[in-house]
Amino acid sequence: QVQLVESGGGLVQAGGSLRLSCAASGSIFTINSMAWYRQAPGKQRELVASIASDPTGNYAESVKGRFAISRDNAKNTVYLQMNSLKPEDTAVYLCNANVQRYLGGTYFINDYWGQGTQVTVSS
What we know:
This protein is mainly beta. The chain is built from no helices and eleven strands.
């Protein structure tokens, strides 16, 4: 199996910064892509940023220019640098990884999720 562990959430004032980390571990052959989602109370889960082989990443319009996603392949870790935070960024942030495993001569590809980390931005 594969486990994702997030860290770095917390309470910050508007205009401040936070850096989230998500480390993947377990029976990993390769990680195809990693992403950050967020879910605010009463709202649907939304994709914040994703990164695959292209290191530039893809971003939701609402965070472009403020957030930056990066990846350390050697550590199976993805980061989300969040700057100029706004109260509307308040949510639980969840890490996602599309992982390829090799077991018993067969490749498996599955999506895995972390438990989430709370980000609260006060006005």
